[in-house]
Amino acid sequence: MSAAQARSAELEKLIQADPGRFRVLTGDRPTGRLHLGHYFGTLHNRVRLQGLGVEMYVIIPDYQVLTDRDVADNLTGHVEDLVLDYLATGVDPARSTIFTHSSVPALNQLLLPFLSLVSVAELSRNPTVKDEIAHSRQSFVSGLMFTYPAHQAADILFCKADLVPVGQDQLPHLELTRTIARRFNDRYGNGTPVFPQPDALLSSAPLILGTDGTKMSKSRGNAIALSADADETARLLKGAKTDSERHITYDPAGRPEVSSLLLLAALCLDRTPQQVAADIGSAGAAALKKTVTEAVNEYLAPIRARRAEYAQDRAYLRQILRDGNERARAVADTTLAEVRAAMNSHY
Ligand code: TRP
């Protein structure tokens, strides 16, 4: 177990003991509809935390989209799709604040003092940013690409979140957020820290692979969207990569594709992947795919029905964002006022 996983397990115990103590900030780039990888990776966990009574902020970081594409096409549509996916999966806007960070000026203003606290060398060696640059669809590497992890620190610290449920790839950004919080407190805190040092909360659910056996991602065309219909789901799963061994066994290291399908079925059926494998036995990959398809379609049916219902009411979606943005602005204004006081820039 890595240090980050051990810390997450420890935090999980603290959350169980006293959920009201924690403020969670989480979110997704508005680049398209969310898929099963998102669902079992983070969405499911968010809704669980919300149910426990943790205070939750869900950010839609719309400026971050500008880091990796030249044209932010259909941004409004992507933002609405995210809100729909959230509502359908159980994020409750009465209990959780859903907002777009471009609508919260005071949040963005935190970026300036934060950038003064990190070196160009630190920004340049961030492994996640390097990886994104390698896969970027932009004709040049923008300044925003280098600075977005500091922007993400503002996303997290504006509401003084102490927990951030994320995947492994976001750990460098969380580390930078902690560094910025610590340096701000050291330089300006006068003995009273302004910011907490937030922790990453890694999901304990293992990764679901895409239908080609690599990481599930919309841009790779291997993802099953939550909003896909039952036929599309069947078609995608029918084309999923498996192997030639007829007897189905759960062996994530030796048989990653078959095992990921078993895991997906198991998560939907609330069973273990080993049980699902034992039931299929020697019936082969076709039977496995049939089992997974039925399990996924049945599991997602109520989520899809809710999504379709909310999609009828654009005015309601806009209202949720307006309310969330208003709440986020009030919180950000308070924090910025504290930052100004600490920095002696209250004029
Ligand atoms: N960088 C995150 C991603 O690519 C999105 C994000 C932006 C985020 N701000 C955040 C995630 C704050 C958690 C907290 O998925």
Summarize the topology.
Layout: H1 3-17, E1 23-27, H2 36-52, E2 55-60, H3 75-89, E3 96-100, H4 105-109, H5 111-115, H6 120-124, H7 127-134, H8 143-157, E4 163-166, H9 171-188, E5 199-202, H10 230-238, H11 256-269, H12 273-280, H13 284-311, H14 314-342
Parallel strand pairs: 1-2, 2-3, 4-5
Written overview of the protein:
By secondary structure, this protein is mostly helical. The protein has helices at residues 3-17, 36-52, 75-89, 105-109, 111-115, 120-124, 127-134, 143-157, 171-188, 230-238, 256-269, 273-280, 284-311, 314-342; strands at residues 23-27, 55-60, 96-100, 163-166, 199-202. The protein has 14 helices and 5 strands. α9 (171-188) links the parallel β4 and β5 (199-202). The longest helix has 29 residues, at 314-342. The protein is globular and about 75 Å long. Residues 25-29, 59, 61, 64, 152, 155-156, 164, 166, 170 line the site of tryptophan.
Discrete helix count: 14
Shape: globular
If you compute it from the alpha carbons, what radius of gyration comes out, rounded to the nearest whole angstrom? 21 Å
- Largest beta-sheet details: 3 strands, parallel
Counting DSSP E segments of at least 2 residues, the number of strands comes to 5
Helix-strand pattern, N to C? HEHEHEHHHHHEHEHHHHH
Total domains:
2
Name given to the CATH homologous superfamily of the largest domain: HUPs
Oligomer: single chain
CATH class descriptor of the largest domain: Alpha Beta
What ligand molecules are bound, each kind once?
A: tryptophan
CATH topology title of the largest domain:
Rossmann fold
Mean pLDDT, nearest integer? Answer: 94
